[in-house]
Write a structure and sequence with these properties.
This is Zinc-binding domain-containing protein. The structure is a single chain. This protein has 590 residues and is an alpha/beta fold. Among the domains are: 163-266, no CATH class; 460-525, no CATH class. It is 19% helix and 33% strand. It has twelve helices and 40 strands. The strands form ten sheets. Strands 22, 23, 24, 25, 26, 27, 28, 29, 30, 31, 32 and 33 form a twelve-stranded mixed β-sheet that branches. It is globular and about 80 Å long.
Amino acid sequence: MNGENKNCQKCGLEFIITSEDTDFYKKNNLPSPTHCSRCRMIRRQLFRNERVLYKAECKLCGKGIISQYSPGNKYAAYCIDCYASDKWDALSYGVEYGFKKPFFTQFDALMKTVPRRALYHDFTVRSEYVNHSVYVKDCYLCFGGHHYEDSQYCAQNFYVNNCTDVDFSMKSEFCWNSIQLRRCSRVHESAYSENCVDSWFLFGCRNCNNCVGCTNLKNASYHIFNEKYTKEEYEQKLKEFNFRSLTSLEKIKTEFIKKTIQYPRKYAWIRNAVNSTGDDLEQVKECRYCFSATEDENCRYSFFMPTGVKDAYDVDHVGLGTENVCELHSSFGGNRVFFGNRIYYSHDIFYSDDCYNCANLFGCISLRKKEYCIFNKQYTKGEYEALVPKIISHMNAVPYKEQAGVEYKFGEFFPISIMPFAYNETVAQEYFPLVKNDAVSQGFRWRDPEERSYKITMGFADVPDNIDSVSESILQEIIGCAHAGKCNNQCTTAFRVIPSEFQFYKTIGIPLSRLCPNCRHAERLNKLNPMGLFHRSCQCGGVFSQNGVYKNNTAHIHGGEICRNNFETPFSPTRPEIIYCENCYQSETA
């Protein structure tokens, strides 16, 4: 594939602008990027603080609220009710664009003036502690996604009910401590499985029920570590496992981790994808270097596109009919939206933030049902169309410059120095983790943990091992996290068990964790394949895997010879997993 080689302004690594990329940029009158796709993704994710929340006051009504903005920040954060009210007018904060200062310097000042939402959530019922989510009922600390009910400590899910500690899953219920589930019920400590019921410790399983510690099984029941048992034998073994005890649970977990790595894994979690590369792709066409995408077409360098995205470059958390967009974080139903954050059901928008049902905006914040505005100031159609080209020329002639020497002209997403959050407050820290020294050396802001004023009333070692030994008095305790803030997981150092969570554990029969919700979330993310691709070859050696660990169950199309198939995979060559191509994997799991 022909293209242009460039070196990233940020990290210095070489990347390629393909001929297809060039066609897209030319079609939309955009310059090609000067940052590599990884650095572009990180920069977009700096706009997304999901789970680092603070106590604050609404800057309009003065009541106590929960906010994603840290104490002492310079932003005017409003509570949900005030932000949606008619007590203020975003156009009243409009300013005239000046041609003496860089565009991003002026936009940074506007961001600190125009009121912002303390939290992003809509259509919620009895769910005060949620963020970046919609259609949520009776939930606590759920982040990203939509249609949650009676759930807690979840992230990036769709249509989940009565789930605890579940991420990147959909249409599942009564599941716990799992990631990447589809249409599952009462499935726990599992990953990358679908249509499964009443099971523990699954990986890559489909249509299974009553299984423990299984990998790559299909249409199976009463299996333990991939071995068949009778119903009676299985139930007896389940009693012996005693998952109600944390000690017993951890013992089986250790055994599962040791055994599951001995089975081949598919090169990527891709289903019904046409001419596409990436991971966690389903029913997509012409999508390349994309991750967590469903029913999308012609997208590039993007992450988490739930459904219906078309002709999109460099987008995150975008879906539901969004089309012909570039460098965009969080959007539904947009068309021709470029370099924006939280732009919904709008078209022809440039460099704007949190705008809904708008058209023809440039550099605007918090507008609703407006058009032909620049820096929140109203213009006529003719005035707008005359001024925008002048602003673009000015952005190129007087670029914004950061200390590291990075220049931001028209065609670049917002600079990292004007982002409202520190690196370790955002999801960038979850998907591209850094330690403080590395983050600061790369030009990112870092926020040190605040001093905690609460008093721990129960050490993690004092938590009862068996859920049967836990009484409702646990609801009154402040439990110390086993990590004690010494990890890199946004640890809260202590946590409480809430009533709905307590009832969930009692009903399912799950022992209490010794870790805070953020540390538990970080452990689950370790099961998620990284967002990067490596060119590799299938590791099927014919009869055995090439490392000699796994013996094939059936004869493959290439017979006893080494498989010659190549692919793009998120598994780096240094990873321990056995990676098979589509054909070899399907032969082993048919």
